[in-house]
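Usage

Read records sequentially. Each one opens with the input sequence:
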Amino acid sequence: MTIVMTFPLVLRMRDSALGGGGGDGTYFIWLVRWYQKALFELKISPLFNPNLNYPQGWYLASTDITPAMVALALPGSLLFGPTWGYNFAMLLSFVLSGWAMFLWVKHLTDSDMAGLIAGTIFAFLPFHLAHVEAGHLSLAGTQWFPFYFWGLSDILKQEKFAWKPVLMASISAGLIGLTSPYYVYMTVIISAIFLLGFIIFKGYKRLKNIVFWESLLTFCILAALLVGLSMLPYLGLAAEGGLASRSLELLNRYSASPTDFFIPSEQHFLWGAWVSEQFDPEFYQEATLYIGAVTFVLAVIAWFKRKQFHYPELFSVAILVASAGFVLAMGIQLHWLGKQVDFLPVVLQDIFHQVEMPLIYFPAYYLFRYLPFFSKMRVLMRFGLFTLLFLSLMAGLGAYLITRSASRKVRRWVGIGLLVLVIIDFYPGVLTGFEPTVARPVDYWLATQPDTGAVAQFPFSYESDQGQVYNTLVSQKPYLGGFFNANQPEQYLRIKPAMDGFPSAESVDLLKKLGVAYVVVDSSAYSDYTAVDLSIQSFGLRLMNVSEEEYVYGWP
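and closes with the structure output:
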């Protein structure tokens, strides 16, 4: 199913990628190769790259380092190259996510078919496909969540202490931390809601059970240790002021609309084009939170027939957590169809005797103000993953009820019919967003030049582009920039005002001090490049090479 749902990715493994060609996938392809080089060739920590943000160096924890997902990519990278390894890790994220949910639902129902339907839903959620398309290797790593909440659920209800659920939940928590700082921080918040819901719906008598506290305390100690180790690079950088806080306005822009959960993906093979024409959210890939019509119906059936199960409290907890994810994903203020709601609907204007929408803040606003590190996040929409996770679980349980109620002769065919409906609901069609992962001709030229210094790219705004980071795989030269979309290092912020004025005496002198030997200028970014070229050479730089639109200068 992964091959079909992502086709023709399996045919483009070595040379192309979704999210490549300068997208975020380009950075993660570079990251796979950097881990490989650091661990097996240079024998150094991959968390610090001395040749980016040169000469200061770059702590990669200022963006995603996702060791767990890179670990899945490394074997393929060693054999067939980093692009192949990256693509393989993306494919594996679907297989493992579906397998994890399959096992959880099979554990609850003893039904392979119910597990297969739930696993298919969770594996191929449009949320997952959208982040793969965007090249978000870290956010594609959703496979640990079913194991984590399965283990946590068993911890909270066990009557006799057992290590299996404790280790399952603890190790999964550590793997979530090694996948994405976003995911682990959100998981901590959601886990508190999960625990509260379990106590409420399972009964307060559990608080008097010594096994409950023994299991929970053991889990908390192990999980805190593993998650703490996974977060050390980020915590160290935060202590040095290297992780920037986001503005309330930015978080509000990345707030979901309730409609995001009910509008099909723009990539759907039947109605995706129509959806794209009718609805145009600012960040459509982040706003792709479609639950699925089949998923929703199956989850509703499971809810109304929950008393047929031996664990009805799980349904109440699932609805609570799904609702919490829904509310937190909506961020700071109310949005609708991807736009902030500034005016009351006409029917309400007469009731409230005003036109403008009252200033109402959602819970995320108060978390932003009072919860440590919450302001480090940017995209609150991603909380919607927990809504999708628990509705996938409930949909699997609903599928179990439907197939069980059918006669033995048609039970399998009913299950297959539900599976087909799920696939039709989510199928994106033949994917077309592939970009070749190739460097520029100028980078191949740079690779042939002496290692006399670093490379700088102008206009200087290009320095922080992930595509430029990928190009260093070919040029093999130290580079003044890095992938600084999230957090900018001290050196970059310090030199940026002068470098933005290039060409100038100040910027050229600074390039010399920083050990830059090759100044690459993209001529297409300037309206009158003849004048720019004359200005550059007037400051003592000479033209060394012209490769397509890239001019390379150096010192005599």
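Summary fields computed downstream for this record:
- The radius of gyration is 26 Å.
- The chain is about 55% helix and 5% strand.
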